[in-house]
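I am writing to request your help with a piece of structural work I have in hand. What I wish to show you is a protein chain and, alongside it, a tokenised description of its three-dimensional fold. Could you please explain, in whatever detail you think fit, how the structure tokens follow from the sequence? You will find the record immediately after this paragraph.
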Amino acid sequence: MSSAWSKHRALLAIVAAGVLAMGIASGVVASKLAAPSPNPGAHRLTAAATASAAREPSAAPTPGQWWKPLPTATAAFQPALLVIEKLKVQAPVEVKGLDPHNVMEAPDNPSDAAWYRFSAKPGSGGNAVFSGHRDFGQVGNPAIFWHLDQLVVGDQIDVVSDKRTQISYRVSQAWDYSVGEMPMQQVLATDRNDEVTLITGSGTYLRGGYDHRLVVRAVRAS
């Protein structure tokens, strides 16, 4: 095992032992995370697939403006834009990591998604992990992943580079974990196929945080 891979595994272990924070700005969602277990409290999506075209981004995407398909990326890249046409999501991507307390940093803005630098880059053959707010400022004030639970198997997720190339993914699975049962080492594992994982808060908002996490996984389609 290489030294770089050993360090990466050690970092994932730190993340898995820490706290995941995401939700709304006025009451940051935080929960202790448990060790991996075989899909506790999970459910699979079973609805039929729906195809959706990726579009060409502008410097400042306009809500409701959609684009022509982009060339497929030929190399791994740091993501610049996350597009989910079904949900009308065009989210600029912030690069995030861990704070001094080993907490996964949440996006700064309700309209942005976060990509975690300790996860894989899209196109690298691993698992690129993103998060986004469900609501922001107050409970029920929709943010970028407000409708994430509407995705079904086969729905398209596009990740766009700053070079105007993209990789398309198709939703394959989703789980709704209670905060005490979320297997972070399994969710964040990078030794997987080329895929993306999206995370947001779900369930009931209690005492400053949501009591569940919605995890959506999609595998590369192009």
Remarks:
- The mean pLDDT is 76.
- The chain has two helices and eleven strands.
